[in-house]
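Work Package 4 report. The design task specified in the project plan requires that, given a folded chain encoded as structure tokens, an amino acid be chosen for each position. We show below one input record used in the internal validation round.
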């Protein structure tokens, strides 16, 4: 592993601890995550699927799972999350009677689910916390039944670009995670043998009164720095002042923007005898989706 790659490797124990810590108030703060989940749920209108078993990867406190349960009234929904406190909140918010939800505390990179058991994987804004995307997609293909659907979203490289560029003027430490490009995610789908992949991207802009409000917002949803190359210890007041000065160049009439690039994708598990796709296969990018932008305030 090169030194540069090592700097961006995730400390999974820190990721788990952070999301456990914010579980109690996560759902009221995860506005962007819920907006993206809603867009994913809308996309399900395009597919004629009747899943019996849905695996909600990174299901958190169950916001999307409750909607999936309502949409597919005969399906069982299994929430999988690294943070057990998130799953405890999800169980508290599930229906008291006749709930069709189950809960699995596990790391998606070591998914403890049997082969060909799952009809649909729903994975909202979880993949950016994974170190080995090939391993994740190989697990997805393994657990999906033939013609099973995987629908996912993740953050792309433009995410928090203003914050990344501003921190780069302060010091050389890792402050913002490195997010995978849409094309790299598509290539990983193909390497895993998932078929007919479709990818597109959408940009959201969230605005703040100052950079401290942005940092507070990220902390409230557990999106704190978990990279191995992060600075350890408290960030000093001098560094925060320098960050605020650097971020000021992005000012838009008294508001500071934070860009989020959201990558959407879906693919299918192959049927028996279907030729696996190789690196020459072209992943399709719907142009109508690529230029759409959304503001979240």
């Amino acid at each position: 592993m090169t030194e540069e790659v090592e700097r961006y490797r995730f400390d999974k124990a820190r990721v788990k601890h952070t999301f456990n810590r914010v579980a109690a108030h996560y759902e009221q703060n995860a506005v962007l995550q819920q907006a993206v989940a809603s867009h994913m749920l809308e996309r399900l209108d395009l597919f004629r699927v009747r899943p019996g078993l849905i695996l909600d990867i990174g299901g958190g406190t169950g916001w999307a799972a409750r909607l999936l349960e309502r949409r597919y009234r005969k399906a069982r929904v299994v929430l999988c999350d690294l943070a057990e406190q998130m799953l405890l909140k999800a169980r508290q918010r599930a229906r008291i009677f006749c709930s069709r939800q189950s809960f699995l505390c596990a790391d998606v990179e070591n998914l403890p689910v049997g082969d060909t058991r799952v009809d649909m994987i729903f994975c909202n804004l979880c993949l950016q916390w994974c170190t080995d995307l090939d391993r994740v997609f190989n697990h997805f293909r393994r657990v999906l039944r033939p013609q099973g659907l995987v629908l996912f979203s993740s953050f792309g490289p433009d995410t928090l670009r203003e914050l990344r560029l501003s921190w780069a003027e302060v010091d050389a430490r890792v402050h913002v995670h490195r997010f995978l490009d849409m094309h790299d995610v598509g290539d990983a789908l193909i390497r895993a043998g998932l078929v007919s992949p479709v990818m597109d991207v959408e940009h959201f802009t969230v605005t703040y009164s100052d950079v401290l409000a942005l940092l507070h917002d990220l902390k409230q949803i557990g999106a704190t720095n978990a990279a191995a190359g992060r600075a350890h210890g408290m960030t000093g007041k001098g560094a925060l002042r320098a960050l605020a000065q650097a971020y000021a160049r992005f000012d838009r009439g008294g508001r500071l923007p934070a860009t989020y690039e959201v990558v959407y994708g879906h693919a299918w598990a192959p049927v028996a005898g279907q030729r696996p796709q190789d690196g020459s296969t072209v992943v399709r990018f719907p142009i109508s989706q690529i230029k759409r932008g959304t503001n979240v305030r």
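The chain has one domain: 3-156+177-205+261-296. Validation will be extended to a larger panel in the next phase.
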